[in-house]
Amino acid sequence: MASTHRRLSLAALLTLSLPLPLAAGGPRLVAGSTYFDLSVMGKPIRWPTGQVNYYVDQGPLSATVTHAQAVTMVDAAAALWSGVPTAAVSLINMGPLREDVSGLDTVAGNGDLVAPNDVAATATDKPIAVVFDADGSVIDAVLGSQASDPMSCNTTGVVVWTDGINTDATLAHAAIVLNGRCTNTASRLKMMTFLLERAFGLVLGLGHSQVYPDALRQSRPEQAQAWPVMQPLSGVCGQGGGQCIPNLHTLQYDDVAELNRLYPVTAENHAAFPGKMLTAANTVSITGNITFRAGTGMQGVNVVAVPLDPDRNPLYQYTVTAVSGTLFSGNHGNPVTGWTDTNGTPLSQYGSADPAVQGTFDLSYMPLPPGMTSASYQITFEPIDPLYIMEMTVGPYYWGSPDPSGTLSPMTVAALAAGASTSLTINVGDSASGGYSDAISTEQAPRLLPTSGFWSGRLSQVGQGDWFNFPVRGNRMLTIVTQAVDERGLPTDAKAMPSIGVWDGFFPVGAASVGYGPAFNGFAAGETWLRVATEGDDVLRVGIADLRGDGRPDYAYNGWVLYADSVEPSHLPASGGPIVIRGLGFRANDTVLVGGRAAQVTSVSPNEITAIAPSAEKGRTGSVDVEIDDLPLFYAASIIGGGISYDAGSGDSLALVTAPSNTIPIGVPTAFTVTALAGDLQPAHAVTVTYRVQSGTAKLACGSSSCSVTTGGDGSASMNVTAMDGTKSVVVASLTDGANVKANFTGGTPPTLAAMTPSLSIAEGASATWTTEALVLKSGVPLSGQTVTWQTGSGISVGSSKQATSNAAGIAAKSLSVGPLSPGGSATATACVNGTAQCVTFTATGAQPGSATVEAVGGTRQSLSAGGTPDQIMLRVRDTTGNPMAGATVTLAQAVYAWAPPCPPHGRCAQAELLANQTASATSAIDGTVTFAPASLAGAAVNVSGIAATGDASTVGVVIEIHP
């Protein structure tokens, strides 16, 4: 067999993080489904024969510990393991290394040593190198500056790494480094003895064990007598040192049994270990399989075997433990955080992928208590201490073991004599198997996120994930939350470890996530959360996977997305006002901030929040964020960036409707009309438009050189501008965000007559009464008492009286009957003053009603209490050029539903009862407006939903809530 060496990450004893999935409560490492020969998958990784040579450094350990003393300490620790009579292990000191290893000749690389040559991974002729690091420089070179500090002696007093593994699951090279800085007191030197004993156990391939970790805290000294050398912590030692465990120089039965399992003495190798005993014939064995009720193996249960004396009293000092599923992988990787460790090594490299071993445990080769030829055993089951994770892991789960599920009652195995074995089958009938729905989608075919934003799921199979798609808008921030729950539905940190990943929905399957939240990064029990910021409109793909890539019937969780999608209206006056926020995942206690100031929330459902926005900060205008917070437990939030503007906001603009230009009559007011548009080009309501005479002698109707107008529901604002003389003038209309349009004009000699209402747009086939006005002037001053005569043509008539007299304002008015007209057809009327040639023309134009558009003026979005009176619904119809259209038909259909409370966070929403339907039609007036009465039931709490339509395709929605 060709020997291939595979580097493993450096492992500082006890604390240095190992990115590979350790299996403890059993063997330290188990061959996986990659790198290794397939025939050894699931086999513990160990030395090929059990006869292992080690070589020691040439220099002293420190100024107070000579070379000879250090070698004696090393030999004693090795002899502890070699001396087990039922284990085929022999650790042999083969003499010195070629040099005194120090910081002067040490070269570190990727977490181990590449020089000197005889301590590097390639030095397989010296399988175990033992280095005496007198000044800590070797440890500092490998682990980082100050790693050797004496204040860390309980963690870096002895450092061990395994850097050579063959594809047949055998070890090829390892190193042990003793920190000379940890010999400065007798207590630290004694602790080093313990750490060195455990270092040889790790090098031999043993993992950590959990044996009565709370014995001393619970005043049970008899249980502390069973503390093994291979416990994950330093016993009762801290950085100051000490004896650490009660029996410092003795392997306990738990240590011996695990060594026996890794290196049994058999008939085939007995001759190579003279004086030792056959393992199976001189020990007892209990193996078994723990399964959930449906048969899936239950991994990560600490199985404790305690022999009983003849009076059936437990002999705690001879306790042996094993963890179920030790041979099965405990860290499979996942699509959220990845499939490799920090060194790029596939996580599939360690631990079996065979589900048959997922719940098995191995308590074989246990020595009988002294003086006993047989013994009964009490078998109990317990969870792994949640502190035992990562480099301190007990069991196969690198990120922590889940609690067992259901009831695992103690068992008694009747008297076992030396050489006897038995197997147990334990099906936990009351363990979790349902209550939550299994994940049903895949990354290739994600399901749509529930419309409420809430869901529940279960990751019951290894490698299983939950996948969702949902659309988002740009410039939003949202929060995705999961909370692991136990069989009772209560939050827990001891079951599933949901991790959240997010992808662009158009990225290919298998691509790396663009962001992820690792398990339990939140504030609440069992919570994982991820905040996502969007740049543009997109589709998000969300994946939920167990951090370990694990799956069990008791891995349930609740999921939730808090996302604010839109807010209406987009503009508010400085005094604030009512707003409606739509999205998903809203909860009853959510709060709302507008521009960082608290809004008064009036109602909450999973998809809608109504609130009263506060007034703007003094002197502040422009766009502000709208934020929904779920505090304090989950600390979830969603933000619509620049969602609302106090007055004009970022991206708002002005569109010119009409303005004075070129030469206008001196003294005749001329309309300067604009429309304010939001960033989405929708009319901006309640925005301040400031008109200002930038240059020239023009006057504004307000009587000042600068004045403001607030836009209406259609976003329009208008100001009359008058040229006072022949000077060129510039008048600017602007928003608070700087958007502006300009009118450039010069005053000229005025006619004696001007048309105030020169044009009309009227729907094809419709008729209307049109009041026309003509302004009579003399030297630019309105003149009263003058006779104006109207003449009409086809399609327009003036009635029996064709004359009108100008009033004090110089205006003469006459009502004309117009229509019907064909599309594009026109009808004109001429008005002349005092029978002269000083005339003006009034033109009515036929418009195609099918091309008409309808827009909201007011009353289409209302929320009020029962007993209140809703405002009238006012709409405006415009033709294709944007002019108000008279004579157009607008139909409004309204449905009245019984008011229903907000939907619950979980479960289905109540179906609201339809109480009434109402349909009405109205014809637009000369200014294009129509008015409707809202449908309602007197005194009743209802929701009114309606739609107004005109033309072929133009509609406006109506939503009125009359709540209790």
From TrEMBL:
UniProt KW Electron transport keyword: no
Keywords per UniProt: Signal
InterPro entries reported in the protein's UniProt record: Ig-like_fold, Ig_E-set, Invasin/intimin_cell_adhesion, IPT_dom, MetalloPept_cat_dom_sf
UniProt superkingdom: Bacteria
Xref: Pfam families: TIG
Signal peptide: 1-23
GO molecular function: metallopeptidase activity
Domain IPT/TIG: 565-630
This protein's name: IPT/TIG domain-containing protein
Organism: Occallatibacter riparius
